[in-house]
Specification:
Elements: H1 3-16, H2 49-62, H3 79-83, H4 87-94, H5 98-111, H6 119-130, H7 148-155, H8 170-178, E1 188-192, E2 197-200, H9 203-213, H10 221-233, E3 237-238, E4 246-249
Antiparallel strand pairs: 1-2, 2-4, 3-4
Helix pairs in contact: 4-5
The protein binds a DNA duplex (16 and 16 nucleotides) through residues 2, 4-5, 8, 162-166, 169-170, 203, 214, 216, 218-219, 221-227, 229-230, 242, 244-245.
GO biological process, one term: cell differentiation
Domain PNT: 26-112
Protein name: ETS homologous factor
Length: 261
DNA sequence: CGAGACTTTCCTGATT
DNA sequence: TAATCAGGAAAGTCTC
């Protein structure tokens, strides 16, 4: 690692992780389940919009729900607003995923400090969604199976992925940053929205963020870009010749189009 | 355990 | 010169 390369990264991160974002990102203790992905120390009432977004992504990751399953713009709010949402609000905003989010935030509100989501409860909800005949939900939850909204969205293919190691794929991670510009502090931007062309503005910062997600502090743009190049063959991305840091979504990339939902 | 998907890591060489 | 791009090769990490 040369001095110049690290200072490049520093300058990118300084811009990205401005003082409003504080992430206790010290040495992570690898002790199983979500501890490594659950780093919100403060109460959700005091979260920034960006922290709300992170919480959202983490809950989705933990349950291997594709982020495009819900309109993320419905959660363009800070922690205070988030905490004031009712169960019905969550249903409206996130459909079938609403109950999962509602329970997560309820737990966090009650505990006041970092608490892990309860996977058993969630698996109950998930199985309830898949097998509506079963009726064994926690007492405080609205009967999930009775919601037509849930049935509709889950029959649409919003299901847990079969093979999705470590939750989100790289291209989905990139896509989700693009789709949330208000929580994307100048990392990547659309060059041609309808064609799916985008450009990395802060390549090393994006790599750091990706590494953070994968719990890999040594991620670099060099390595991230190798993974991106593998997407060409699978037509998840198309080559954009002659333009540095520019990529284009391919025919096998889903969920990035404005009209697609 | 094995296979396969999806990276991650490393590398050599070319291009901007 | 540094940053980026191109891919080959092989290892690592998951899920099924």
């Amino acid at each position: 690692m040369s001095i110049t390369s690290s200072s490049t990264l520093d300058s990118q991160l300084t811009t990205v992780w401005s003082p409003t974002h504080s992430y206790p990102d010290g040495p992570l203790v690898m002790s199983g389940y979500p501890s490594r992905t659950w780093q919100h120390e403060s109460q959700p009432q005091f979260w920034s919009k960006f922290q709300v977004w992170e919480w959202l992504q983490q809950v989705m990751d933990i349950h291997q729900i594709d982020a495009s399953s819900i309109p993320l713009q419905n959660f363009d709010m800070d922690g205070h607003q988030l905490c004031s949402l009712s169960y019905q609000d969550f249903l409206r905003a996130a459909g079938s995923v609403g109950p999962i989010l509602f329970h997560s935030i309820t737990e966090l509100k009650w505990s006041g400090r970092s608490v892990r989501p309860t996977p058993i409860f969630f698996s109950l909800i998930i199985s309830e969604i898949y097998e509506p005949t079963v009726n064994t939900l926690a007492p405080d939850a609205t009967p999930v199976s009775s919601s037509p909204d849930i049935k509709r969205s889950f029959s649409r293919g919003h299901q847990v992925k079969k093979h999705n190691p470590r939750g989100t794929h790289l291209w989905e991670f990139i896509r989700d940053i693009l789709l949330n510009p208000e929580r994307n502090p100048g990392l990547i931007k659309w060059e041609d929205r309808t064609e799916g062309v985008f450009r990395f503005l802060k390549s090393e910062a994006v790599a750091q963020l990706w590494g953070k997600k994968k719990n890999n502090s040594s991620m670099t743009y060099e390595k991230l870009s190798r993974a991106m190049r593998y997407y060409y063959k699978r037509e998840i991305l198309e080559r954009v010749d002659g333009r540095r840091l520019v990529y284009k979504f391919g025919r096998n990339a889903r969920g990035w189009r404005e009209t697609e939902k």
